[in-house]
Specification:
Length: about 140
Amino acid sequence: MMEKVFVDTNIVLDLLAKRDGFYEAAQELFSKSDNEEIDLYVSALTIANTHYLLTNRYKADDVRKIIIKFKILVKVLPTDDKIIDLALASDFKDFEDAMQYHTALENNLDIIVTRNKRDFKNTKLPILTAQEYVELKRIN
């Protein structure tokens, strides 16, 4: 059974915006999905936020094309009433992080990959950066 990995928005942006210092690890992570080594998941919230943030860098038509290509690599999970209620009742300081966490938890995913590990304290799921994840997979 393939590992089910939830990818936070910042890792998606590292890949799609080719952010210096972070692009390589993100690219290696997403290539594992492309090679069918792992299943990668994002929330519908990530798609919306990524689209919005990329329009600051690229033309809207280009952003749509980027997202269409990107969606091949991931499964998009819905954000529903239960996830919003769980996020609202959580002790997360950042509501968006709470929504991401509860999306991963409610969908029985194995791990969360994010650049902001400190935002996911006291969670039931392992939290790794993209760099930590790909290095761990090179060892195993």
